[in-house]
Amino acid sequence: MATMTSLGIGSGLDLETMLSQLKAAEQTRLSPYNKLQASYKAKISSWGQISSSLSSLQTSVKKMSSDAFNTLNVGSNKAFTAKATSEASADSHEITVSQLATAHKVKTSTFEDANKDLGVTDGGTRTLTISQENGKSFTVTLADDETSLNDIAKAINKEGGDVKANVQRTDGGYQLVLSSKTTGSDGMIGVSVKGDDNLAGFMTCNNGGAAEDENGLPTNDDRMTIVTEAKDAKLRVDGSDFTRSSNTISDIITGVTLDLKSPSEANEDGNLKSEQLTLSKDTSAIKSSMKDFVKQYNALLTQTSAASKYVPVDTNGMLDSDVATQNGQNGALVGDSMLRGLVGDIRSTVNSVYGDATAEYSALADLGIKIDPTTGQMTLDESKLDEAIASEPDQIANMFQDRNGQQGISSRLNEIITSFIGDDKTSIDGQIKNTTDGLDSQLKIMETQIAKTQKLIDGQVERYRVQFQNLDATMAKLSGMSNSVTAMLTGLN
């Protein structure tokens, strides 16, 4: 039987339109699956946004438990700068810097050509051992054709040790300079040579290098001369003397890192003047952290309100036999019990009383933070907050931080948030992940079901097409027979 290229040619019927209508009717079988798929995706997306808002609030909460109340202003000084962590305490310290730590540097005598081999050419090898006072060392092996200043520097740097080599061009020629990457006496450089008397004659350095005499020659057995001595930093802090190998010092004042810049200035009598390091509480950090806390809390409540939004169904004009469906403007998580629990826990926490019972400031409302009983949104009276910070910053800290075995706002909120978003460090997944994992599984099942149903629909539509093609062909054949009979009857007349 010949296949029609277009339905309806043989029969004259609009079979293409009929087939399209049947196909559309079949596609409605996918509607419930598509709605569920869209619902799962919307819920996963909504939980993802809420999780992000919770993470931002948690970051703000953690600041309120430590940095906000432990940030210090550090006074400026000439001989040193200082940085303070949350472990530091508000205090003042008398500091005098008498000497900076310097890195050891030594150099060879000068040579006319930096590429000319300077060692013994006997077909053997020689070794250079570069050592430091701290016990670190490395060895370089050189062949006959690797004893020029440039080759020696290249070989030393290739080892990647704590001593750097470079060749300098001076008015008198080229010289090899070795520089310690470690400051202080710990970085003092030593050089020994085996297997080559020529190299040993200008590179041996066992005593930290020699000073040059008026003729530029070493004054002791060391064949390399001092460019910069290996010196330790020396300073006096609160009446005690300290020696350190580095100019960056963090083990004298708890929570404070000193960065020495220069020796202290001298008095008229020649004695060094001490400088005062002042560490004072930075109350501006409390306010900025509090404002961020309010901002992140409100952002979360805005997100949860949108997710749980409920819009009643408009039943106007509906018949008794009609079935009402959910309003499309509803939030993705409307009626979700876990979301209600999350919002309830957080709102209950921020509305509670903390700190000492007799304290002037023991609730957020005392700090100028009002909470709308309907929406849960916070508003901040900055002038009232400024007054509280100025008068009783410790009482504010007692509200947010754990004290005397009692939890503050920060730790309570942190526990709640962690229970929902989890913690990678402690391998806690959190309720949101467990929920979205379940939704992901349902989404995959739904996608599989949609694919199977679509395959059935496509098969059914194809069967309709074949039936219509057969109908078209049959009717075309009958039409032809009818025409033939009509013609025969006409001929008989």
TrEMBL record:
Identify the main location.
Answer: secreted
Which compartments is it annotated to reside in?
Answer: Secreted; Bacterial flagellum
Q: Which Pfam families match?
A: Flagellin_IN (PF07196), FliD_C (PF07195), FliD_N (PF02465)
Q: Which UniProt keywords apply?
A: Bacterial flagellum, Cell projection, Cilium, Coiled coil, Flagellum, Secreted
Residue ranges occupied by any Flagellar hook-associated protein 2 N-terminal domain in the UniProt entry: 11-104
Instruction: Please tell me one Gene Ontology term that the record gives under cellular component.
Output: bacterial-type flagellum filament cap
Instruction: Return the InterPro entries for the record.
Output: Flagellin_hook_IN_motif (IPR010810), FliD (IPR040026), FliD_C (IPR010809), FliD_N (IPR003481)
Q: Which residues form the Flagellar hook-associated protein 2 C-terminal domain?
A: 230-478
> In its UniProt record, which GO terms are filed under biological process?
bacterial-type flagellum-dependent cell motility; cell adhesion
| Entry similarity comment | Belongs to the FliD family.
Task: Please describe the quaternary structure of this protein.
Answer: Homopentamer.
According to its UniProt entry, what is the function of this protein?
A: Required for morphogenesis and for the elongation of the flagellar filament by facilitating polymerization of the flagellin monomers at the tip of growing filament. Forms a capping structure, which prevents flagellin subunits (transported through the central channel of the flagellum) from leaking out without polymerization at the distal end. Required for the morphogenesis and for the elongation of the flagellar filament by facilitating polymerization of the flagellin monomers at the tip of growing filament. Forms a capping structure, which prevents flagellin subunits (transported through the central channel of the flagellum) from leaking out without polymerization at the distal end.
What is the official name of this protein in its record? Flagellar hook-associated protein 2
Native organism is Erwinia typographi
